[in-house]
Write a structure and sequence with these properties.
Blueprint lengths: L2 H7 L26 H8 L6 H6 L12 H14 L3 E5 L2 H12 L5 E5 L4 H11 L5 E5 L15 E7 L11 H10 L3 E5 L4 H4 L9 E5 L13 E5 L2 H14 L5 H11 L2 H19 L5 E5 L9 H7 L6 E6 L5 H9 L4 E3 L8 E6 L16 E5 L5 H12 L4
Parallel strand pairs: 2-3, 2-4, 4-5, 5-6, 10-11
Antiparallel strand pairs: 1-7, 6-7, 8-9, 9-12, 11-12
Helix pairs in contact: 4-10, 5-6, 5-9, 11-14
Bound molecules: pyridoxal-5'-phosphate (PLP).
The site of pyridoxal-5'-phosphate (PLP) has 14 residues, from helix 5.
């Protein structure tokens, strides 16, 4: 099945729900069993309920392990990422922190990409360090040379491609090849591309992480994360970690995320087309020195992106022609009518924020002094967005 068909037909079972097209919302804490024996069987991973049994959760005896609504979303995400198991968490960030915690103990060493999502870095130096995990940040362009950073105690290599804020693309197959040789677990934050445009598990990555909050839900009304694993060993470790830590989601949020998921392909194609129009226009703006977007032909990572991805998302950044005062930048952003000002992305509305990569880089150096702005292109008409931007760029003249 092609991905568009998977999006439409996976995670659904109408004739098990009296014919309802969508999976009903099974909102519960306690799960009742027909007998005491059935309850204890479920605790041991053998549920009398087919949806729970199929989900692969380690202990489907209680609501924290999920209900048929959760299982349906897990099922659909597994199918899309070509994984064996999917765990849901309360946010994208919590998916990252649970995945790292599951595989790292005191004395272990973690290789973390320098361009990781800011809160991922914060978790590393704030929490993992405190628990005795050693961390080395590495250049996103390191490729096969990551071999030189591997230690006897290296347990996990974490990737994010393209990276947050500056969008460097990693050579995922090269890193995976090195990791496999040393028996190191690989994880990737795949939120930007979604499983629609990048398939890390099919390239040998062990764990793919999604901020469901972003494109998958797509409507800025749910916070959720997903950890999708390949292979029974990684799947069992994640399933247990999630159960033991009490990470869980409401069936209602899973229902909303499933509803969002159905239109993912249509939305991503529109996001991609709109972004191409905006990027092609922005390229000719004298106040823009550089566009950080791997699908842009002039990007140094264009070839790497083209080789690994089947499409591009709608989040990119620009380096402006000089360092503007904070006041001028505020005026620039505030004058945009259709670009919201706020964190996150992945919804239908466009967003804008200025940023400085310097404080969140250590393995590489951000030497650019000019102002940087990140744009998220929504589902508005790109023509309207361009008129809006044209007006705002006048502020920088
Ligand atoms: C937003 C984001 C996350 C975290 O998702 P939340 O659900 O907001 O916690 C993780 N990774 C990347 C790349 C993100 O942009």
């Amino acid at each position: 099945m092609k991905k568009e068909t998977l999006l439409t037909h996976s995670g659904r079972d109408p004739f098990n729900h009296s014919g309802a097209v969508n999976v009903p919302i099974s909102q519960t804490s306690t799960i009742l069993f027909p007998s005491a024996e059935e309850y204890h069987n479920a605790e041991k991973g053998k549920s009398c309920y087919p949806a729970a049994q199929k989900s692969g959760v380690s202990d489907p005896s209680y609501g924290t392990s999920g209900t048929p609504t959760n299982f349906a979303l897990q099922d659909a995400l597994c199918a899309l990422e070509q994984g064996d198991y999917c765990a849901l968490t309360s946010s994208g960030l919590s998916a990252i922190t649970h995945a790292l915690s599951a595989f790292l103990s005191a004395g272990d060493h973690l290789l973390m990409v320098d361009t990781a999502y800011g809160p991922t870095r914060r978790f590393c130096h704030n929490d993992l360090k405190k628990y005795g995990v050693e961390i080395t940040y590495y250049d996103p362009h390191i490729g096969k040379d990551i071999a030189s950073l591997i230690q006897k105690n290296t347990k996990v290599i974490f990737m994010e491609s393209p990276g947050s804020l500056t969008f460097e693309v990693q050579d995922v197959p090269a890193i995976v090849a090195v990791a496999k040789k040393h028996n190191i677990v690989t994880m990737i934050d795949n939120s930007w591309a979604t499983p629609l445009f990048f398939q890390p598990l099919s390239l040998g990555v062990d764990i793919s992480i999604q901020a469901v909050t972003k494109y998958i839900n797509g409507h800025s009304d749910v916070l959720m994360g997903a950890i999708i694993t390949k292979g029974t060993s990684a799947s069992n470790i994640i399933a247990k970690e999630i159960r033991y830590r009490g990470a869980c989601n409401s069936a209602f949020d899973c229902y909303l995320a499933l509803r969002g998921l159905r239109s993912l392909a249509a939305r991503m194609n529109a996001h991609q087309a709109n972004t191409k129009k905006v990027v092609d226009w922005i390229e000719n703006i004298p106040q823009v020195k550089e566009i950080m977007y791997p699908a842009h032909k002039k990007s140094p990572d264009y070839a790497l992106w083209k080789k690994q991805f089947t499409g591009a998302a709608s989040l990119f950044s620009v380096v402006l022609d000089k360092k503007y005062s904070q006041k001028t930048l505020y005026k620039f952003m505030d004058s945009l009518k259709f670009f919201g000002i706020g964190a996150s992305w992945g919804g239908y509305e466009s967003l804008v924020l200025d940023f400085d990569p310097k404080p969140v880089r250590s393995a590489t150096q951000w030497t650019e002094d000019n102002s940087c702005v990140r744009f998220y292109i929504g589902l508005e008409s790109p023509e309207d967005l361009i008129i809006d931007l044209e007006k705002a760029f006048k502020v920088l003249k």
